[in-house]
Amino acid sequence: MAAYVAAIDQGTTSSRCALVDRHGQIVAMAQREHEQIYPQPGWVEHDANEIWRNVELVTSEALDQLGATPDDLAAVGLTNQRETTLLWSKETGQPLGNAIVWQDVRTADLCRRLGGDEGADRFRAQTGLPLATYFAGPKVRWILDHDDEIRARAEEGEVAFGTMDTWVAWNLTGEYVTDVTNASRTMLMDLETLSWDDRLLDAIGIPPSMLPRIVPSSGLIAGSRDPLPGVPFAGILGDQHAALFGQACFAPGTAKNTYGTGCFLLLNTGEHQLGGEPAKYALEGSVAIAGAGVQWLRDNLKMIESAEQISELATEVDDNGGVYFVPAFSGLFAPWWRDDARGVIAGLTRYATRGHLARAVLESTAFQSRDVFDAMEADAGIELSELKVDGGMVVNDILMQFQADMLDVDVVRPRISETTVLGAAYAAGLAVGFWASLDEIAAHWEEDRTFTPSMDPDERARRYRDWRKAVERSMGWVE
Questions:
Q1: Pairing of strands 277-287, 263-274
Q2: Would the pTM of this model clear 0.90, i.e. be above it?
Q3: How far apart are the first and last CA of the chain?
């Protein structure tokens, strides 16, 4: 009998594969980083072939850790960085250039032109999304506008478009698919029908032949090829939806925040009946730069040698020393949606040290999450009493305590913080009966620690007011 479910997590900075047992425990994990390519300011790209090679390697490495084979797997699930956009040849399977990453802002002018007199809300009623550089549809249009040969081939039906789930699935199974969570981030899918919409495709300017088949997030899709020959491919979820699932946020009103390259707060808003099956919806607020700010300190400023060292620097000082860091490297995402913003460091004096800057970088993640949290409560009309957290940054107790202080709610960290891979595994395992029900999955969730607010309310208000002043100074930088 198969003992594990595999979960492939194709993320913004790395690709991972985990093996999960019947008790919801991650028993093996392998990970490899890939290159971040910056052709010019504001542009971010990935080499899709490098990513697929890494997926092959980490999958084999995870199996090798246990001496396991594909025969030991009941299924494989996939989760991925969303919105990152790739075009490739349907005939050869080779990319037609690098993937354009979700952080990339090259489509700013195009988004303004597409908005016209209606502005950023032109497609919001159908898609739930503002017209912004974040999403995949305008990226596809930008590529077509800047390469006549690719456009001609696309109109002849020779070009495939996909976010990274589609690319990995194509290579793993030979199937041309995406799931509803990833399709919902393209600006090309209607939220009511859960299908590609001809009106959206026509308005944005994308040939329908470029689009993959939309499948449910949990369900048998195909059998896998190497490196997992014969293993049922049975689940796809965008990374933030996978984390919500892995946190067992199955009930309306439950919420999680993932602290990864960016920061993503999702709130389960419940079901809406579509035909015979209820679709489950979530309200999301996205922050572009969270852990990526720590990487910037490490890779660009060389202030630290590893991400873990930021905690050591931050503990050298008692507070931020009046320093505020707004990491608008790719503009500001929710709730501002300002592609004209750029990063600023405000409040510098001769008193400021690298410890203050390190603390300001950590605090910027909590402040940005507060911005999203407040907007989400206002939109949903739900006052949250706690926030579940996950992702690589949650091991930082300084950040988690400051987050609780800024939100004035309990912040709850699970014992297993890698909930994105858990969500992908759960989706695939449910589809093949490895786990029997959502209740069984929920029973695997365990708390590690709860961070309770302890900051004086006046101090909280002062710090947040100063943060908002710094945010204002980041706006309007790009003309």
A1: antiparallel
A2: no
A3: 61
- Is the peptide bond prior to 216 cis by the omega test (within 30 degrees of 0)? no
Q: How far is CA 278 from CA 124, 200, 235, in A?
A: 22, 24, 18
Per-residue pLDDT of the chain (479 residues; tens, 9 = 90+): 789 999 999 999 899 999 999 999 999 999 999 999 999 988 999 999 999 999 999 999 999 999 999 999 999 999 999 999 999 999 999 999 999 999 899 999 999 999 988 888 899 989 989 898 989 999 999 999 999 999 999 999 999 999 999 999 999 999 999 999 999 999 999 988 899 999 999 999 999 999 999 999 999 999 999 999 999 999 999 998 999 889 888 888 888 999 988 888 888 877 654 444 567 777 888 888 888 899 898 989 898 888 788 888 888 998 999 999 999 988 888 888 888 899 999 999 999 999 999 999 999 999 999 999 888 888 878 788 889 998 888 988 999 999 999 999 999 999 988 889 999 999 999 999 999 988 899 899 889 999 999 999 999 999 999 999 999 999 999 87
Closest of 293, 280, 272 to residue 396, by C-alpha: 293
Closest CA to 216 of 185, 190, 183: 183
Domains of the chain, each with CATH number or no CATH: 4-243 (3.30.420.40), 248-474 (3.30.420.40)
**Whose CA is closest to 40, among 104, 101, 83?**
104
